[in-house]
Amino acid sequence: GESVGLHLPTLSVQEGDNSIINCAYSNSASDYFIWYKQESGKGPQFIIDIRSNMDKRQGQRVTVLLNKTVKHLSLQIAATQPGDSAVYFCAERYRGYQKVTFGTGTKLQVIP
Amino acid sequence: EAQVTQNPRYLITVTGKKLTVTCSQNMNHEYMSWYRQDPGLGLRQIYYSMNVEVTDKGDVPEGYKVSRKEKRNFPLILESPSPNQTSLYFCASSLKISTEAFFGQGTRLTVV
């Protein structure tokens, strides 16, 4: 539950503004990246993914950007709403490995 | 409804008393995995399974066992739980490794 959000970097955003959550990934050979959202008391929920042959992918109100040069992944949320308040995790899959590694997460707080 | 079901949701047990956390998915997914989530550490993979009778260690497998006798079920077994296994546990399934994962609601385990 709430203990998941402790000790995490926090991003506070005014309702209606755009949010940008950043993630530095570790392995230059990673070929698949995912963003998950975790609300208090729930399991992570898939938001959007991107493969390494792409730089950008858009969903509904969300955009993921991948910069392979600096091993950086970002999640942009347009017109942030109170329901977007959650912990956001990026995850990467190392090419050739059969597992996915998660980042430590960022807490997004939306100020009404 | 497509879902991953874990049981129990909450469990308090004593050191050394064997326990099993069940996980079942109804999506005919091949890939299943177990994670533990601790404050500040994100989600760490314990074990994963590529398919029936195929399991492998994740990043933190010590003290845990799994089995995959059927495609839908992937139980997590703690033969002799210790207090350092107190954590929030999640089961997840996906069609393949490089596709979105569906997570269960979590099992909060306390070992005293």
Word description of this protein:
The complex is a heterodimer of chains A (112) and B (112). Chain A has 112 residues and is mainly beta. Chain A has strands at residues 10-14, 19-24, 30-38, 45-51, 56-58, 62-67, 72-77, 86-94, 100-102, 106-111. In chain A, strands 1, 3, 4, 8, 9 and 10 form a six-stranded mixed β-sheet that branches. A four-stranded antiparallel β-sheet of chain A has the order 2-7-6-5, with no helix packed on it. The model of chain A has no long low-confidence stretch (mean pLDDT 91). Chain B has 112 residues and is an all-beta fold. The model of chain B has no long low-confidence stretch (mean pLDDT 95). The interface between A and B is medium-sized, with 29 and 31 residues.
Short descriptors:
heterodimer; A: 112 residues; mainly beta; 4-stranded antiparallel sheet; 0% helix; B: 112 residues
Quick description:
Chain A is mainly β. Helices cover 0% and strands 54% of the residues of chain A. The two termini of chain A are 22 Å apart.
